[in-house]
Amino acid sequence: MIQVSTSVLDLSEKDCVHSFYNLETAKTDYFHIDVMDGEFVENDTSKRMLEYATTISHISQLGLDVHLMVNEPEKFIDDYVGLEPRILSFQVEPVLQDKQRIYDMIDDLKRNGIRVGLAINPGTSIEAIKEFLPYVHMVLVMSVWAGRGGQSFIPEIASKLKELKQYLDENDLDLDIEVDGGINNETAKIAVENGANILVSGSYILGADDPKSAISRLKDCL
Ligand code: DX5
Ligand code: ZN
After folding, report:
1. How far is 41 from 146, CA to CA, in rounded Å?
2. Which of 8, 18, 84, 138 could form a disulfide linkage to 176, CB 3.0–4.6 angstroms apart?
C-alpha cells in the first residue's frame, strides 16, 4: 500500500490550523516536517517547523514524519522526542564520519518508541548506509537536493531506488522506502515502480485545486 506524507514546508502560517485540518480530511497519511538549520542547508525553518509540529500534535491523530536536514541532529531530536513522531529521519551526510553517533541516535530514538529513518541526498550512495540498515525502519531517498520545496525530481534516482529495494529484498530487510522531492502524479509512478512505498509531496498537493484528489492520484499512481 502506498502512503502519502504531505510536506508542510511551504504552507503559509496564516490559517495553518485550518490547512492542517484540510490535509487530514484530504486523507494524507502523515504530516512531513522539514527541519532546516541554516547550516546544513541555507534555509532555517527550525522555529516554524517546531511550531507546526506542536500544533499538529495537539489537533491530529495522524503521525508526524520528521525530516532533519541539520548539522547536529542530536539537538533537534531532543526537541521532537516529546511530540512522539511516528517516524524521525535525519540526513546522514553531516554525521557519516562518526558512525558511533549514528548508532547512538538510532538507539535513542528506538528507546523512545520512534521509528528511525536515514535520509540520503542524491550524492550519497546506498553503499554508505548499508551497515545501518538492519537497525532502522526506513530509508528516505531524496529525489532533489535537500534545501527547498518546488524542485524537479532527478530521474537518475530511479536506479538508486531500485538498487536499494533489491538490496533490502536480498537481505530480508523489511524497511519502508520514502522518496522526497518533486513528487507529482508522474514522478510518483516512477518512484513506486522502483520500490518506494511512502511518497512525500509538498507543492503538488498544496498547489492543487483539490488536495484530496491530488493525494488519491498519488496513492493510485500505478
Ligand atoms: C526538500 C524537502 C522536501 C520538499 C518537498 O528539502 O525535504 O520535503 O520540500 O516539496 P516538493 O514536493 O515541493 O518537492
Ligand atoms: Zn523532506
Report:
1. 7
2. 138
